[in-house]
Q: What sequence folds into this?
């Protein structure tokens, strides 16, 4: 069960799960990024994802990847400034994970971010979806 | 224009084929109310997602368009095609009228037979592609695309002026349900409420069910709940299947009966997304993509549809002129393209000569010119998808004749990256006949 209150959202229908810096482990704050169930549903069956490799620097708002369904192409926008730590290789092999588990196994990239822009909370995102809000669950 | 709720259905562009449209604005609302199918409530209850198709709110998918596509290839799918336009042509000169109004010789088909045809402009551009069913000696049903309902109806009415025939739009009263897939026949036969009135012509044995002997592109009259039902062995998926024309008021009941009859056979409701990928694999053109007013039949590989052996018909002069004019610059022609990997080449992507072309031109004085030419597109994709059945990208495209031969390599610009594709024969997918 996804705890939506732990997630942040963007108007581009992406979700961001923040992990704080860990001084002991020496890790910087990171963010895992995926697309919302609403976005996955609107795209239809995802058949191909093109994700940035580890080490690639990303800039807030820039297009850094693509999510293709049979019918359309969705762009992956970077929701933060930072550097890609890891892309989800499993989702490259099995793009249907984006549909079956968008908030879990269907995550797309994990990035180390330098600064956190203003993101939507769950209630904000629900409000953005309006009548279609229930489809997120 | 008739004053009906369908009249804003004039937009010929199916929105489901537009990339990028779906993710941009969650709160977008259509500017005009969409026409609802008589089956709309059935689709809502089934959890369908909807799309605006030529002004109609139609199911785009119920759950997974890939699963729906597979079901049609492997068992069966049921489609609501009530957006299609049904135009009835009746009268002593109905056959002669259709011979004049359409490109094919419709007078030559037998009662019960169906024929694919084209409605041409005087310049031989394509107003619509359609299927014509002969219901009786002087009675035809013309089925046009939803987006062309009023263009087709208007052209037919205008061309009927000097013929003793009526042209009637029956679209609002008619629902169309398609059952497509290898199990389609068993499913339609299993609906207890469908009664076939006549055996199809040439049925050799009355112990056989009428659908056992019904040939592809033939039709048969039936009854459902005491009302006329018209069953045709036609479709747009590359599979065996049936299209059932039923009074709109009975559509929901017939749909439910078909779903019940289909359950043991793996029948699933299928939306327009899978219909598009199925027809594309089967190499079938879609108006607004492969066909349009600026497309000549021969360019689209439909050169055999116009029948120049018959009498006068709209578009004939232009076709004869094109055939006689050896110096005419040939237009681009429709081809099938296959690629490797997983990236689909989609509608409106540009096609170029492959990067290696002309690389060894050396000191050839034409090299500079060739290099300049290489920068210009040689074609344009009209439809494309990662083929669910074949697992690789397939596309239909118009290319310069020099690039149309089977085996020719081209490069398609897929959002900034040029990927290799190769011309192949259509269709991409052909079912195994039993």
A:
């Amino acid at each position: 069960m996804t705890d939506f209150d732990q997630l942040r959202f963007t108007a581009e229908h992406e979700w961001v799960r923040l992990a704080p810096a860990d001084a002991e482990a020496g890790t910087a704050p990171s963010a895992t990024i995926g697309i919302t169930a609403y976005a996955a549903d609107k795209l239809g069956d995802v058949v191909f994802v093109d994700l940035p490799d580890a080490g690639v620097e990303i800039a807030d708002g820039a297009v850094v990847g693509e999510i293709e369904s049979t019918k359309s192409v969705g762009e992956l926008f970077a929701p933060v400034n930072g550097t890609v730590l890891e892309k989800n290789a499993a989702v490259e092999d099995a793009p249907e994970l984006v549909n079956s588990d968008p908030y879990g196994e269907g995550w797309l990239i994990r990035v180390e971010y330098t600064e956190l822009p203003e993101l939507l909370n769950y209630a904000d995102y629900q409000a953005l979806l309006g009548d279609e809000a229930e489809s997120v669950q | 224009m008739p004053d009906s709720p369908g009249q804003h259905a004039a937009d010929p562009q199916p929105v489901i084929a537009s990339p990028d449209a779906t993710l941009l604005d969650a709160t977008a609302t259509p500017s005009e109310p969409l026409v609802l199918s008589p089956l709309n409530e059935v689709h809502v209850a089934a959890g369908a997602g909807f799309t605006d198709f030529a002004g109609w709110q139609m199911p785009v998918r119920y759950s997974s368009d890939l699963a729906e596509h597979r079901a049609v290839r492997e068992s069966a799918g049921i489609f609501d095609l009530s957006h299609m336009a049904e135009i009835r042509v009746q009268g002593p000169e109905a056959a002669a009228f259709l011979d004049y109004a359409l490109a094919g010789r419709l007078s030559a088909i037998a009662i019960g037979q169906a024929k694919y045809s084209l409605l041409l402009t005087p310049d031989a551009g394509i107003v619509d592609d359609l299927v014509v069913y002969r219901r009786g000696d002087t009675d035809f049903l013309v089925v046009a695309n939803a987006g062309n309902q009023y263009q087709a109806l208007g052209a037919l009415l205008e061309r009927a002026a000097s013929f003793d025939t009526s042209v009637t739009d029956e679209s609002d009263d008619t629902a169309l349900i398609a059952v497509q897939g290898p199990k389609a026949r068993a499913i339609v036969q299993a609906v207890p409420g469908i009664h076939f009135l006549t055996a199809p012509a040439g049925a050799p044995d009355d112990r056989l069910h009428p659908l056992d002997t019904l040939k592809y592109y033939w039709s048969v009259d039936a009854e459902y709940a005491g009302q006329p039902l018209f069953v045709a062995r036609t479709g747009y998926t590359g599979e065996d299947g049936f299209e059932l024309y039923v009074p709109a008021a009975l559509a929901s009941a017939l749909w439910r009966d078909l779903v019940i009859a289909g359950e043991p056979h793996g029948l699933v409701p299928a939306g327009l997304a899978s219909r598009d990928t199925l027809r594309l694999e089967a190499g079938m053109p879609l108006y607004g993509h492969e066909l349009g007013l600026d497309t000549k039949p021969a360019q689209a590989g439909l050169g055999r549809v116009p029948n120049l052996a018959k009498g006068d018909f709209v578009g004939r002069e232009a076709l004869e002129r094109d055939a006689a004019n050896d110096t005419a610059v040939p237009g681009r022609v429709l081809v099938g393209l296959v690629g490797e990997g997983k990236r689909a080449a989609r509608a409106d992507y540009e096609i170029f000569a492959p990067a290696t072309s002309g690389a060894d031109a050396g000191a050839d004085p034409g090299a500079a010119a060739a290099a300049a030419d290489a920068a210009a597109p040689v074609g344009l994709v009209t439809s494309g998808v990662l083929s669910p059945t074949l697992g690789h990208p397939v596309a239909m495209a118009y290319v310069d004749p020099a690039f149309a031969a089977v085996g020719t390599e081209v490069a398609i610009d897929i959002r900034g990256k040029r990927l290799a594709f190769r011309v192949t024969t259509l269709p991409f997918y052909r079912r195994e006949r039993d």
In short: The two ends of chain B are 46 Å apart (CA to CA). The mean pLDDT of chain B is 89.
